[in-house]
Amino acid sequence: MPAERPTVLATSGGLRRTDRGVVEFDGLLHHAVELARVPAGRVPRLTYLGTAGGDSQAWNAAVLGAGARAGVRTTALDLFPMPSVDDVTAHLLDQDVVWVGGGSVANLLAVWRVHGVDLAMRTAWEAGVVLGGVSAGSICWFQGGTTDSFGPELRAVTNGLGLLPYGNGVHYDSEARRRPLVHALVADGTLGETHCTDDGVGLVYAGTDLVEAVSETGGKGAYVVRREESEVVEQRIEPRRLPVP
């Protein structure tokens, strides 16, 4: 049973390290599984794409281990040195959740387009597979956002998949240059209305409608930044606190 409407969970979180350094699913990733409405008695299916980080096999193993401990059948879809499945679209359609990791969103978008993953993602989204991710794995679903893909200085990326007709700002509270650049890009029209998340916060979209902000961490916020006449206005959205896994 897929999600009722095409669903995206765009986040600045989802995974956490324990005191012993083990990676675990945090509240946002558990929420992505909940959004998929998996039938009772069936193990949820999630595939992880680490394209933005170069398909690190060590990180893949950490995510797959976290999935196993969370009771989720987790696979990795690699694109380096070649796609790890014969049919990317069929693989995505067989999942309940697609989760995309962080890193270089510019490289992610380029590699996805070479292999047709951009089109496959739209097909999966329209079919009700929940699409989610963190940082680069958040920005990719939007028209664009702010990124350090091109070097230490943050720049705009404007060639996202465009499933969601907004800009996206991630790590809004933890990286001091993110907020002023979002405001500048909205002011000059490089980005339109832009939706932003503090670390640990996610935004839930049904179709292209923002329906809720959720958080795995207390005291955090989400924000909508838009231009109204000659001014840039930022509206804070209080997230709903997710249960602690």
List the defining traits of the structure above:
alpha/beta; Rossmann fold; six-stranded mixed sheet; 7 helices; 16 strands; 26% helix; 29% strand; globular
Q: What can you see in these coordinates?
A:
With 245 residues, the protein is α/β, with parallel strands linked by helices. It has one domain: Class I glutamine amidotransferase (GATase) domain (Rossmann fold), CATH 3.40.50.880. It is built from seven helices and 16 strands. Strands 5-4-6-7-1-12-13-16 form an eight-stranded mixed beta sheet, with helices on both faces. The chain has a six-stranded mixed beta sheet with strand order 9-8-10-11-14-15.
Topology summary:
Blueprint: E1 7-11, E2 15-17, E3 23-25, H1 27-35, E4 45-49, H2 57-69, E5 73-76, H3 88-93, E6 97-100, H4 105-115, H5 117-126, E7 130-134, H6 136-139, E8 144-147, E9 155-157, E10 167-169, H7 178-187, E11 194-197, E12 201-206, E13 209-215, E14 222-228, E15 231-237, E16 240-241
Parallel strand pairs: 1-7, 4-5, 4-6, 6-7, 8-10, 10-11, 13-16
Antiparallel strand pairs: 1-12, 2-3, 8-9, 11-14, 12-13, 14-15
Low-confidence stretches: none
Oligomer: single chain
| Radius of gyration over all CA atoms, rounded | 17 Å
- Looking at the structure, what is the overall shape? globular
CATH fold-level topology = Rossmann fold
Q: What name goes with the CATH superfamily?
A: Class I glutamine amidotransferase (GATase) domain
Question: How many strands in all?
Answer: 16
**How many angstroms separate the termini?**
24 Å
Count of the domains: 1
Q: Give the rounded overall mean pLDDT.
A: 97
| H-E order | EEEHEHEHEHHEHEEEHEEEEEE
Determine and state the CATH class.
Alpha Beta
Indicate the structural class.
alpha/beta
- Enumerate the strands of the largest sheet in spatial order, edge to edge or round the barrel: 5-4-6-7-1-12-13-16
Report the total helices.
7
Strand content: 25-35%
